[in-house]
Amino acid sequence: MKIGIIGATGHVGRFITNEALRRKHEVVGIVRNVPEETTPGLTYLQKDLFNLTSADIADFDVLVDSYNAPENEENLHVATMKHLVGILQDADTRLLVVGGAGSLYVDNKLQTKLYETDDFPADFKATAANMSAALDYLRNAKNVRWTYLSPSKDFLVNGARTGRYKVGQEQLLIGKYGKSEISMADYAIAMLDEIEEPEHQQQRFTVCAD
How far is CA 7 from the centre of its chain? Predict the structure, then answer.
């Protein structure tokens, strides 16, 4: 497949890019600035997310959004989602979103989100709340093929690539050792598995270390 990855040089974006290249997909990194040290096999499209057009992404089978808003500009999560929904109207291109864990529910009645709990770090509440609002906007979008993948509570940049994970829907998952965590490497595997064999179209799902 031809896969465009917004934020391909970011933390999560790099893992998804490398996993897609490992699986021999044609990958285009959509970045504001092309790095001096480029990734072998990766083609770059140097463009700001807000300047992307329907024509730019028309020949992608999949567009992965791994955008992360800068500090004090967390409202851009909703703005970027609105822009992407706009350019993907009635397109065949699927949108896969790197989501947050903060919007996952911590109770069986699906009433309390993780970021609404007392022990959620205050520094991350604005990001989590805005990512949750972006997800709500996406859920209500019409004529867009989308999937939203939330990680576990602890998203480990240096975690092992095991190739194993368990899948949930709207609730925060806890692994067999009592931890809610997933490595970025295993998250990327889950993302590419969903790209290759879609099982959560028009849905949010989550993954946790098995």
Answer: 10
pLDDT tens sequence for the chain (210 residues): 999 999 999 999 999 999 999 999 999 999 999 999 889 999 999 999 999 999 999 999 999 999 988 888 999 999 999 999 999 999 999 999 999 999 999 999 999 999 999 999 999 999 999 999 999 999 999 999 999 999 999 999 999 999 999 999 999 999 988 999 999 999 999 999 999 999 999 999 999 998
Residue 30: strand pairing partners: 6, 45
Which pairs with CB-CB distance under 8 Å and at least 24 residues apart come from 130-136?
Answer: 130/69, 130/74, 130/75, 130/76, 130/77, 130/78, 131/77, 131/99, 131/100, 131/102, 131/103, 132/100, 132/102, 132/103, 133/77, 133/78, 134/77, 134/78, 134/80, 134/81, 135/97, 135/99, 135/103, 135/204
- CATH code of the domain made up of 2-208: 3.40.50.720
Domain ranges of the chain: 2-208
Longest dimension (CA), the chain: 49
Q: Which amino acid is at 71?
A: E
Which of these, 44, 45, 23, 1, lies nearest to 190 by C-alpha position?
A: 23
Task: Count Cα neighbours of 115 within 13 Å in the Cβ-side half-sphere.
Answer: 17
Residue pair 43/60 in contact (Cβ under 8 Å)? The answer is no
**d(C-alpha 125, C-alpha 208), whole Å:** 21
